[in-house]
TrEMBL record:
<dbReference type="Pfam" id="PF00106">
    <property type="entry name" value="adh_short"/>
</dbReference>
<dbReference type="InterPro" id="IPR002347">
    <property type="entry name" value="SDR_fam"/>
</dbReference>
<protein>
    <submittedName>
        <fullName>Very-long-chain 3-oxoacyl-CoA reductase</fullName>
        <ecNumber>1.1.1.330</ecNumber>
    </submittedName>
</protein>
<keyword id="KW-0560">Oxidoreductase</keyword>
<dbReference type="InterPro" id="IPR036291">
    <property type="entry name" value="NAD(P)-bd_dom_sf"/>
</dbReference>
<dbReference type="GO" id="GO:0141040">
    <property type="term" value="F:very-long-chain 3-oxoacyl-CoA reductase activity"/>
</dbReference>
<dbReference type="InterPro" id="IPR055280">
    <property type="entry name" value="TIC32"/>
</dbReference>
Length: 259
């Protein structure tokens, strides 16, 4: 029988709570959110619940056909949902630039940016720009995307007098990295931790800079809990430890303190 951690945090929520519980009573109408790779796992559920609460969701996906199917499924259960699908391949800085330019040219506001996409242990390969593909997907692509959309977010927060939010989905595994921190060598065990450490440091430094500027944007780096998703498809450890991943950590979100 799965053990479910039910200790409530400061928020009053525990691992037993779902995204629907946490957002109950929140009206997201008028807000626009971009979420990277919402075609499976945590991203898909986040997109669904944001749309359910009235947020205009922009699904930034490398597989636009899969994203269109996800959009259809969400709309079936929530006919009033407003969802757009746009192409984004995080392993290519050019694709990220194209995405951001297209988004900016649409003249939409941007209240929420959720950098969710991630890979654990894909076969060793290089991105289109020559970087290790996991570092490129989990960190470099998101770093570039955030930079390109930052002015849009600042303007939205200022014009609407409403706090903007950037969420960088990191992991507790950010602690499992090379002794020297972020370095240019490759070890399959530490490479994921390194990319997630980079997400966390990105959040800390961006928080510092935005505070200095007085921009009304909060950055969170978070560990989403441990849950079995398609993330485990490339990882022997995760895919061979199903019981471990059914221990009930699935709904916990732990925020690192960055603000
Ligand atoms: N699940 C956990 O226990 C856990 C724990 C700690 C942190 N996280 C983090 O939570 C986030 C969501 O993971 P998840 O568990 O929901 O995994 P998931 O179901 O595998 O979702 C990850 C998504 O990232 C996408 N992606 C991979 N490479 C991409 C690229 N180059 N460009 C654009 N999208 C790309 C995948 O798209 P495709 O389907 O097209 O490959 C997939 O939809 C990740 O950042 C992960 O590191 C998860």
């Amino acid at each position: 029988m799965p053990l479910l951690i039910a200790v409530k945090g400061k928020s009053g929520f525990s691992a037993r709570n779902t995204a629907e519980d946490v957002t109950k009573g929140i009206d997201g109408h008028g807000l626009t959110a971009i979420i990277t790779e919402p075609t499976s796992g945590i991203g898909l559920e986040t997109a669904r619940v944001l749309a359910l609460r009235g947020v205009h969701v922009v699904m930034a996906a490398r597989n636009v056909e899969a994203a269109a199917k996800c959009k259809e499924t969400i709309i079936k259960s929530c006919p009033s949902a407003t969802i757009d699908v746009m192409k984004l391949e995080l392993r290519s800085l050019k694709s990220v630039t194209n995405f951001a330019n297209e988004y900016i040219s649409m003249g939409l506001p941007l209240n929420i940016l959720i950098c969710n996409a991630g890979v654990t242990a894909p076969p060793v390969s290089l991105s289109k720009d020559g970087s290790e593909s996991r570092f490129a997907t989990n960190y470099l692509g998101h770093f570039h995307l955030t930079n390109l959309l930052l002015d849009t977010m600042k303007n939205t927060a200022k014009n609407w007098r409403r706090e903007g939010r950037i969420v960088l989905v990191s992991s507790e595994v950010h602690r499992l990295t090379y002794k020297g921190g972020i370095i240019g060598i490759y070890n399959s065990f530490y490479a994921y931790g390194q990319s997630k450490l980079a997400n966390t440091l990105h959040a800390k430094e961006l928080t510092r800079r935005l505070k200095e500027e007085g921009a009304d944007i909060t950055i969170n780096a978070l560990h989403p809990g441990i849950t079995e998703t398609s993330l485990s498809r490339h990882s022997n450890f995760m895919s061979s430890n199903h019981n471990f991943f059914h221990l009930g950590f699935s709904k916990t979100v732990i925020f690192f303190s960055c603000s």
